[in-house]
Amino acid sequence: MSQSDACPRTSTRPYGQAVAYTYTVTAHSHADPDAVFSILLRPGSWPLWSRIDAAEVEVGDPGDPQRAGDIRIFRTGRAVSHERIVELITDKQFAYENVNGPFRFYRGAVELTRSHGGGTDIVWSAHFAPKLPLSGPFWRWYLTRFIQGMADGLARHAEGSRH
Q1: Beta carbons within 8 Å of 160's beta carbon, 6+ residues apart
Q2: Closest to 12 in 3D by CA, of 105, 109, 112
Q3: What pLDDT digit, counting tens, does each position of 101-140 carry?
Q4: Residue 128 near residue 137, CB atoms below 8 Å
Q5: Any bridge partners for residue 92, and if so which?
Q6: Residues 41 and 94: beta-carbon distance below 8 Å
Q7: CB-based contact 33:91 (threshold 8 Å)
Q8: What DSSP element (H or E) covers 1?
Q9: Of the candidates 101, 99, 110, which has an alpha carbon nearest to the alpha carbon of residue 139?
Q10: What is the pTM of this model?
Protein backbone atom coordinates (compact mmCIF):
# COMPACT_ATOMS: atom_id res chain seq x y z
CA MET A 1 0.00 0.00 0.00
CA SER A 2 1.45 3.30 -0.98
CA GLN A 3 0.66 6.97 -1.21
CA SER A 4 1.88 9.88 -3.25
CA ASP A 5 1.39 13.61 -2.85
CA ALA A 6 1.02 15.49 -6.10
CA CYS A 7 2.21 19.07 -6.54
CA PRO A 8 -0.34 21.87 -6.51
CA ARG A 9 -1.63 23.10 -9.83
CA THR A 10 -3.75 26.04 -10.94
CA SER A 11 -7.34 25.47 -11.98
CA THR A 12 -10.07 27.82 -13.15
CA ARG A 13 -13.39 27.19 -11.45
CA PRO A 14 -16.73 29.00 -11.20
CA TYR A 15 -15.29 30.63 -8.06
CA GLY A 16 -12.55 32.30 -10.10
CA GLN A 17 -8.98 31.27 -10.31
CA ALA A 18 -7.87 29.19 -7.34
CA VAL A 19 -4.84 27.10 -6.52
CA ALA A 20 -5.93 23.48 -6.68
CA TYR A 21 -4.28 20.60 -4.88
CA THR A 22 -4.44 16.87 -5.45
CA TYR A 23 -3.69 13.67 -3.62
CA THR A 24 -3.65 10.03 -4.68
CA VAL A 25 -3.47 6.97 -2.45
CA THR A 26 -3.55 3.29 -3.33
CA ALA A 27 -4.47 0.01 -1.67
CA HIS A 28 -5.01 -3.58 -2.72
CA SER A 29 -7.83 -5.90 -1.68
CA HIS A 30 -8.01 -9.64 -2.25
CA ALA A 31 -11.75 -9.14 -2.81
CA ASP A 32 -13.20 -8.78 -6.30
CA PRO A 33 -14.16 -5.30 -7.61
CA ASP A 34 -17.89 -6.01 -7.21
CA ALA A 35 -17.44 -6.58 -3.45
CA VAL A 36 -15.43 -3.37 -3.03
CA PHE A 37 -17.89 -1.34 -5.12
CA SER A 38 -20.86 -2.72 -3.17
CA ILE A 39 -19.35 -1.45 0.09
CA LEU A 40 -18.73 2.03 -1.35
CA LEU A 41 -22.42 2.30 -2.29
CA ARG A 42 -23.61 1.68 1.28
CA PRO A 43 -22.68 4.64 3.47
CA GLY A 44 -23.97 2.83 6.56
CA SER A 45 -20.97 0.49 6.30
CA TRP A 46 -18.37 3.29 6.23
CA PRO A 47 -18.05 3.64 10.05
CA LEU A 48 -17.21 -0.09 10.18
CA TRP A 49 -14.03 0.28 8.11
CA SER A 50 -12.99 3.93 8.45
CA ARG A 51 -12.43 6.71 10.96
CA ILE A 52 -15.91 8.04 10.18
CA ASP A 53 -18.06 7.96 13.32
CA ALA A 54 -21.53 8.06 11.74
CA ALA A 55 -23.13 8.06 8.31
CA GLU A 56 -26.55 9.26 7.19
CA VAL A 57 -28.25 9.91 3.87
CA GLU A 58 -30.59 12.76 2.98
CA VAL A 59 -33.19 10.32 1.66
CA GLY A 60 -33.54 6.60 2.38
CA ASP A 61 -31.64 4.09 4.47
CA PRO A 62 -27.82 4.34 4.81
CA GLY A 63 -27.68 0.54 4.52
CA ASP A 64 -29.18 0.60 1.03
CA PRO A 65 -27.10 1.18 -2.12
CA GLN A 66 -27.00 4.77 -3.30
CA ARG A 67 -27.18 6.25 -6.79
CA ALA A 68 -25.63 9.23 -8.56
CA GLY A 69 -27.15 12.42 -7.19
CA ASP A 70 -27.65 11.06 -3.67
CA ILE A 71 -26.14 13.00 -0.75
CA ARG A 72 -24.38 11.31 2.14
CA ILE A 73 -23.67 12.96 5.49
CA PHE A 74 -20.59 11.78 7.38
CA ARG A 75 -19.65 12.75 10.94
CA THR A 76 -16.10 12.45 12.22
CA GLY A 77 -15.73 13.98 15.65
CA ARG A 78 -17.30 17.43 15.40
CA ALA A 79 -16.73 17.66 11.63
CA VAL A 80 -19.72 17.06 9.35
CA SER A 81 -19.24 16.42 5.64
CA HIS A 82 -21.99 16.42 2.99
CA GLU A 83 -20.98 14.59 -0.17
CA ARG A 84 -22.93 14.18 -3.40
CA ILE A 85 -22.31 11.12 -5.55
CA VAL A 86 -21.66 12.50 -9.04
CA GLU A 87 -20.68 9.44 -11.07
CA LEU A 88 -20.92 5.69 -10.74
CA ILE A 89 -19.48 3.13 -13.13
CA THR A 90 -20.41 -0.31 -11.82
CA ASP A 91 -17.45 -2.10 -10.24
CA LYS A 92 -15.03 0.53 -11.63
CA GLN A 93 -15.56 4.08 -10.38
CA PHE A 94 -17.20 5.94 -7.52
CA ALA A 95 -16.95 9.77 -7.80
CA TYR A 96 -18.22 12.36 -5.35
CA GLU A 97 -18.11 16.06 -4.50
CA ASN A 98 -18.00 17.71 -1.10
CA VAL A 99 -20.89 20.19 -0.96
CA ASN A 100 -19.98 21.95 2.29
CA GLY A 101 -17.02 22.48 4.54
CA PRO A 102 -13.66 24.17 4.12
CA PHE A 103 -13.36 23.80 0.33
CA ARG A 104 -14.22 26.02 -2.64
CA PHE A 105 -14.47 22.75 -4.53
CA TYR A 106 -13.60 19.15 -3.82
CA ARG A 107 -14.04 16.21 -6.17
CA GLY A 108 -12.87 12.75 -5.22
CA ALA A 109 -12.91 9.43 -7.02
CA VAL A 110 -12.31 5.82 -6.12
CA GLU A 111 -11.09 3.83 -9.13
CA LEU A 112 -11.26 0.02 -8.97
CA THR A 113 -9.25 -2.22 -11.28
CA ARG A 114 -9.16 -6.00 -11.30
CA SER A 115 -5.59 -6.94 -10.38
CA HIS A 116 -3.63 -9.32 -12.62
CA GLY A 117 -2.74 -11.31 -9.51
CA GLY A 118 -6.34 -11.43 -8.30
CA GLY A 119 -8.38 -9.05 -6.22
CA THR A 120 -8.77 -5.32 -6.72
CA ASP A 121 -6.37 -2.40 -6.99
CA ILE A 122 -7.89 0.69 -5.39
CA VAL A 123 -6.84 4.21 -6.37
CA TRP A 124 -8.49 6.97 -4.31
CA SER A 125 -7.76 10.49 -5.45
CA ALA A 126 -9.15 14.01 -5.31
CA HIS A 127 -8.55 17.54 -6.46
CA PHE A 128 -9.65 20.44 -4.29
CA ALA A 129 -9.16 24.08 -3.40
CA PRO A 130 -9.59 25.23 0.18
CA LYS A 131 -11.54 28.35 1.09
CA LEU A 132 -8.84 29.56 3.48
CA PRO A 133 -5.83 30.93 1.59
CA LEU A 134 -2.50 29.18 2.22
CA SER A 135 -4.16 26.16 3.87
CA GLY A 136 -3.78 23.91 0.79
CA PRO A 137 -0.52 22.21 1.84
CA PHE A 138 -2.03 21.37 5.24
CA TRP A 139 -5.19 19.92 3.67
CA ARG A 140 -3.18 17.88 1.18
CA TRP A 141 -1.03 16.49 4.02
CA TYR A 142 -4.04 15.73 6.22
CA LEU A 143 -6.29 14.30 3.50
CA THR A 144 -3.54 12.08 2.06
CA ARG A 145 -3.14 10.41 5.44
CA PHE A 146 -6.86 10.29 6.26
CA ILE A 147 -7.83 8.86 2.87
CA GLN A 148 -4.96 6.33 2.93
CA GLY A 149 -6.58 4.97 6.09
CA MET A 150 -9.93 4.92 4.28
CA ALA A 151 -8.50 3.01 1.30
CA ASP A 152 -6.73 0.50 3.56
CA GLY A 153 -9.89 -0.01 5.65
CA LEU A 154 -12.02 -0.45 2.53
CA ALA A 155 -9.60 -3.07 1.16
CA ARG A 156 -9.61 -5.06 4.42
CA HIS A 157 -13.38 -4.81 4.95
CA ALA A 158 -14.13 -5.98 1.41
CA GLU A 159 -12.03 -9.09 1.98
CA GLY A 160 -14.29 -10.12 4.86
CA SER A 161 -17.61 -9.07 3.32
CA ARG A 162 -20.28 -11.25 1.82
CA HIS A 163 -22.11 -8.67 -0.28
Answers
A1: none
A2: 105
A3: 899 999 999 999 999 999 999 999 999 999 998 999 999 9
A4: no
A5: none
A6: yes
A7: yes
A8: none
A9: 101
A10: 0.87
